[in-house]
Amino acid sequence: MPKTQKDFNDYNTEVKPTWCPGCGDFGIWTALRMAIADLGWEPHDFLVVYGIGCSGNMANFVKSYGFHGLHGRALPVAIGAKLANQDLKIIVLGGDGDGYGEGGNHFIHALRGNVDITYIVHDNQVYGLTKGQMSPTTEQGQPTSSTPEGVIEQPINPVALAVAAGGTFVAQGFAGDTLQLRELIKQAIAHPGFAHVNVLQPCVTFNHHNTFSWFMKRVYKLEPGKYESGNKLKAFEKALEWGEKIPTGIIYQEIRHTYEQDVSELKKQSLLRQALKKIDISKTLAKFS
Ligand SMILES: Cc1ncc(C[n+]2csc(CCOP(=O)(O)OP(=O)(O)O)c2C)c(N)n1
Ligand code: SF4
Ligand SMILES: [Mg+2]
After folding, report:
1. pLDDT digits over 212-243, tens only?
2. Residues with CB under 6 A from ligand 1
3. Tens of pLDDT along 14-52?
4. Considering only CA atoms, which residue is closest to atom 26 of ligand 1?
5. CATH classification of 8-288, choosing from 3.30.1440.10, 2.40.128.110, 3.40.630.10, 3.40.50.970?
6. Range list of β-strands (E), 201-269
7. What pTM did the predictor assign?
């Protein structure tokens, strides 16, 4: 059946966003809804799994299946859902603290596993919801509410980390460029495998360093055709650019088998569609008696 034409406002809920006026989360919210509208999805066609943070509060503002779980645990929930129902389109959305801090371990293993889901990270270089503590991507030396004398540790580079950990689709967007982000999200969704989109997102309340104007002076687009996204060494070069120039676009892409494709039980069809088999566990039980 042909899909009905969608408008991004079709995915609004009755709840109005509670983000601070001017927050970069608004740009990501708009780009996401635009991308979904372009694809013509019905709200029941997709699941969004959210982390905990200002970013994760989007759970209240997008009409779809949704799961708002524990801080740092969005990826394992999404992977579980995908393995149970491969037909469901799944997007995961959360913050830099959620995904690269408390959930950092899940991030690395999701990259190497290559389950077919899309992961959008609102990278505002700070813990927004809990009032401005340092996050794993806060720049060294930057004072925050938890580091008044400046951050001591080096920041992690999520894009380089994603390439190094075996990511098959690694992209970077900017919350101030909604139209580019809309396209990146669609490309991430179309990618057969784990697609990571790091979105540079100003937090206007707690991060007075990485502001919209700071990013706008620095971000530039990698041009498809001119930039070769299939070259891992070039991807590392681009991923490491930070400071004077910050690249946006698809940094790295390769096609590799998804996790689901290599699990024999899942090759047949979604677990959800398989009849429950009667399994005799009496021998196993006997070992414990
Ligand atoms: C297990 C657990 N640890 C810590 C917290 C407290 N907490 C809630 S949100 C958050 C950080 C949010 O930062 P980020 O993920 O960057 O999202 P943002 O608010 O910046 O969008 C923390 C530490 C929590 N809710 N649960
Ligand atoms: S605290 Fe920062 S990230 Fe959270 S809503 Fe306000 S501006 Fe946005
Ligand atoms: Mg954050």
Report:
1. 999 999 999 999 889 999 999 999 999 999 99
2. 51-55, 70-71, 94-98, 102, 122, 124, 126-130, 135
3. 999 999 999 999 999 999 999 999 999 999 999 999 999
4. 71
5. 3.40.50.970
6. 219-221, 246-253
7. 0.96
